[in-house]
Amino acid sequence: MSEIYAPEFLAWWGQQGPQAVARAQPAPGKGRTNANRIDVTPIVRKFTRLKPGELGLNFVISPESARQLLPAAARQAAGYVWPTEDTETLWVQGGNELAVSLNRIGLQVSEGLATLVLQVRCDQTGPVAVQVPFVCGSARQPAGLYTATPRQPDAPPVIMHLWSEPLVAFAWHCLLILVSGAASATGKDLRGNVLVPVNLAASKKGLEVQTMARHHFYGSSGLTAGKQVALPRRSVGEPQP
Description:
The protein is of the alpha+beta class. It has one domain (7-212). The protein contains 4 helices and 8 strands. The strands form 2 sheets. Strands 2, 3, 4, 5 and 6 form a 5-stranded antiparallel sheet that branches. Helix 1 runs antiparallel to helix 3 and helix 3 packs across helix 4. The chain is globular. The N and C termini lie far apart (46 Å).
């Protein structure tokens, strides 16, 4: 896993990080709490340089922030490794083509449901919106990173018939990169590895992400190579001692 997914995630965390953490904090008493009035500095300091397996910050990606970050996630999901000015990716299947927008992806959220809205176009339909819903966890019913989605997205029949599977896969890849990239921007563990998401919950506030430090068996664990032992030579067919 790379050290950071895209500079856009680091820039977003530097600008919106405190608000994202504040949105995830429970409101004291009754009524709503203004996220801009919560001092999250002690919370952020508490979850720095985590040990392997420790839970990190809990934060919320608002729909507005998601629309800001999804183009970066979509470019990576489409296979772009270097910065590009392309705004669409073209899919080809036999004699059929579908153009998928990389910079106009929306997010709709409700309790336990996150829907990615993709903008696509082909000769038969022109520009249309395709909705791919993901049933995920909620604050009351956490589900880790497990989600469920229909086999076919909400799209015109001509698009649904040919492109259902790649559209669902592309939307899921965008969603996964979105939460992973945002989690990686929050910090690193004691071994220098970026944090990873361990739980995703959807609500009207947005996507709530719980971060965690990787376990020892992943990444730079600091383990050293064992001593090599020379095995005795035997001829082919020689019986074992």
